[in-house]
Amino acid sequence: MTNLFRTLTARVVLVTAATAVIAVIITALVAVPISVRSVNNQVRAELRDKSALAVELLTDLRPARRERIVQELREEDIAVYLIRRGVVDRPGLPQRVIKVVSAGEMVDTRGMVDGRTEFIVGRPLSGNSSGVILTHRTGTATAGGLLGGVWLALLAGLGGGLFAGTLLARLIVRPIRRAAAAAGHLSAGDRSIRLSTQGPAEAAELAGAFNQLASALQVSEGRERDFLLSVSHELRTPLSTIRGYAEALADGVVGADGATKAGETMLAEAERLDRLISDLLVLSRLEAADLPLDVVAVDLTELVRAAAEAWAPRGTLSLRTELPPSPVWVRTDPGRIRQVIDGLCENALRVVPEGAPLILAVRAAETAGVVEVRDGGPGFTDDDLAVAFDRGALNQRYKGIRKVGSGLGLALAARLVVRLGGTIEAGHAPEGGARFTVTLPCETPYETRTSS
Questions:
Q1: pLDDT in tens, 94-126
Q2: CA diameter of the chain
Q3: pLDDT band at residue 73 under the 50/70/90 scheme
Q4: Which DSSP symbol is given to 317?
Q5: 125 CB contacts (<8 Å, ≥6 apart)?
Q6: 360 Rama sector, left if φ>0, alpha if ψ -120 to 50, beta otherwise
Q7: What contacts 242, CB < 8 A, 6 or more positions away?
C-alpha cells in the first residue's frame, strides 16, 4: 500500500477524491445553517398568517366548527392552544406567553413548549382575556435531515473524485511516461529520439527541454568524436616520427653523424607529445573540478614581463609589451595564468606570419586586472569567435587550410580562466589578427594597493 501511494497517479486520485469530500463537507456546513434559517423564516411567516386566520374563524363560530379548525391546524403539525378567561385549555406553554396574550397583546417569539424549542405566535380574541396561540417546531429537524443526506453526497463526491482523479492522473502522467521512455532510448544511445510538443503548456515545456537536451547531446557527441579523431591524429604524428627514427637507428640506417640530429628530432616530438598529454590531463581534471589551485597575490605586470622575456627569443615574431608603470595586483594562481599566456602565445606563434606583431598588454580596471594577447595574424571571423573556445572546433574548420593545433589550447585556456574566477574573450585585434582578453578579479581596488 505504501508503494502504491508513491506513484503520481495514486496521489492525484487521492488528492482529487479528498478535495471532492472536503468540498461536500464545506458545502454542507455552509448550506445547512442557511437552509435552516430559510425554513424557520418560512415557518414563522406561515404561523403568523395562520394565527390571523384562526382568530378570524374562531371568533364567531360554533364549538363544533372550532374543533374542526383546530384539527386541521394540528394535521399541519401546528399545535393550537385556546385561552379563555386567562386559562389555557392544555398545559405546555410558557406562562409569560399566556399572560401577554391574556392581556390583549400579540406574541411572536421562540420558546420552550413541552421541552422543545418551537415558534410561538399568539393573538388575543375579543373579550374575557381570551386568545389563540399556535406553535410549530423549529427547523432543527430540517437540519438533521440535511445532515443525514450528507452521507449520500459524500459517497457521490468520493466516487466523482476517484473518477475525475483517474482521468486527470492519466493526462498528467502520460507525458511524463513518454519522457521516461524517451530518456531510456536516449541513455541507450539513440540521440535521434524526440518528443512531441503538443498538449498542455507544461508538457510542451518538458518535451521542449528534453528535445534541447537530446540535440545538445547529439551535437556534443559529434564534436567529441571529431575531437578524438583530431587528438588521435595529433598523438599519432609525433609517435610515428619517434618510431621512424627509432627504427632507423636500430637498423643502422642513421649513422653516427646523423644520430645527434635524430635524437634532437625525437626529443622535440616527445616534448610535443608530452605537452599534448598534459593538456588532456589538465582538461579532464578541470572538467572534474579536481585541479588544485594555489591562489596568491600576483602582480600581472611582472608576470607578463617575465612571459615576454621568455618568448622574445622564440620564433620570428615582433614581440612587444604594453605594461603600466605600477603593479596590477590580483588574487590568482600565477602558474596557471602563465600557462594561459604561454598557450595563447604558442597559438599565435603557430599561425602568425614572420615579422607580424605579437603584443602582450596589461591594464587595470576598477576591480579587476586585464591581460591582452594580440597579434597581426589571420585572425578570426565573426563565426569563429562563437566557437573559439570549443574543443577542436577551429581545428576542424581550418584543417588543411592553415596551420592548426590539436584544438586543446584555447579550450584549456578558457577553462583555466573560468576556474580561477575570471573571464576570457576572443575578438578582433587592431593589429589585424586575433585578440584575447583575460579579466581577473581582485579583492582590493588598485588605488588602495598603490597608495599603501
A1: 888 888 878 888 888 888 887 788 888 888 877
A2: 158
A3: confident
A4: -
A5: 55, 58, 59, 83, 131, 132
A6: beta
A7: 266, 269, 270, 273
Per-residue burial over 401-431, b = 16 or more CB atoms within 10 Å of its CB, e = otherwise: eeebbbbbbbbbbbbbbebbebebebeebeb
Residues 6+ apart with CB under 8 A from 4: 10
Find all residues with CB under 8 Å of 396, minimum gap 6, and list them.
Answer: 226, 230, 407
Task: Give the whole-angstrom CA distance, residue 414 versus residue 425.
Answer: 9
> What SS3 class is residue 119?
strand
Alpha carbon distance 150, 155 (integer Å): 9
Nearest residue to 78 via CA among 41, 55, 106, 44: 44
pLDDT in tens, 141-164: 555 555 555 667 667 766 777 777
The three cell numbers of residue 103 are 392581556
What's the pLDDT tens digit per position in 372-420? 999 998 888 888 888 888 776 776 666 766 666 566 778 888 888 988 8
CA distance 171 to 16: 14
Q: Which cell goes with 406? A: 590539436
Beta strands 87-88 and 79-84 are: antiparallel
Q: How far is Cα 221 from Cα 395, in angstroms, rounded to an integer?
A: 16
In sequence order, the 6+-apart residues with CB closer than 8 A to the CB of 244 are: none
Q: With DSSP H G I counted as helix, E B as strand and the rest as coil, what are the percentages for the chain, rounded to 5?
A: 60, 15, 25
